[in-house]
Design a protein that fits this description.
- It is built from six helices and six strands.
- The chain has 184 residues and is an alpha+beta fold.
- The protein has one domain (32-170): Nuclear Transport Factor 2, Chain: A, CATH 3.10.450.50.
- It is globular, with a radius of gyration of 16 Å.
- Mean pLDDT is 85; it is low at 1-5, 7-28 and 180-184.
Length: 184
């Protein structure tokens, strides 16, 4: 496990990642998410339940990821399996996470959609009582594509707005990343 979270640990090393624990039949089965906001909710739920094999299925084969507001660096387009494999490897050790979405909005244009959601993500390391917590709040911007009969996320951008607690539990350095305030 890396000593701190970096752009590389979020976006991946570029190496192929095998998602374990999935039978050939399960891998071949396509789950259909019937609406764009359903895909954004499934991303949060599947992450929190550590359903890594099912989490891959909410994305297109490659996904554009921009977490630069949190970790710096540059946005990147990576295979969905690599992204989820890196999340599993770098954040799967947490005792619990809870990603709550609110104020979701979507605009559908044919087979493409854009969606936004405010979020609050709580991360816990250690026991239920007395464990260490880090909470991040902000906004997600998503782009989605209709694939077959369902929707998949092809781009996610995180805009962190506030945080509280011990960010070192996810490998971020203490003290935070200094950002210039920008008008939205």
């Amino acid at each position: 496990m890396p000593s701190h979270l970096t752009r590389r640990s979020i976006l991946g090393s570029g190496a192929a990642i095998a998602v374990v624990g999935v039978t050939a039949a399960e891998a071949a089965a396509e789950e259909v998410i019937s609406d764009p906001l359903g895909a954004t909710r499934e991303m949060a739920v599947r992450f929190d339940l550590k359903q890594w094999d099912r989490l891959v299925q909410v994305f297109t084969t490659e996904v554009h990821v921009d977490y630069t507001g949190l970790v710096g660096g540059e946005p990147a387009t990576v295979p969905a399996a690599t992204l989820v494999g890196d999340w599993r490897r770098n954040l799967g050790h947490l005792s619990a996470t809870q990603h709550m979405l609110a104020n979701q909005a979507v605009r559908v244009t044919g087979r493409e959609a854009g969606a936004t959601a405010d979020f609050q993500a709580t991360h816990r390391s250690g026991p239920l009582v007395g464990g260490r917590l880090w909470v991040l709040g902000g906004r997600y911007d998503y782009r989605l594509t209709r694939v077959g009969g369902g929707w998949r996320i092809n781009s996610v951008t995180m805009h962190p707005l506030w945080e509280h607690g011990d960010r070192t539990i996810i490998g971020l350095p203490a003290g935070g990343r200094r950002r210039r305030a920008t008008a939205r």
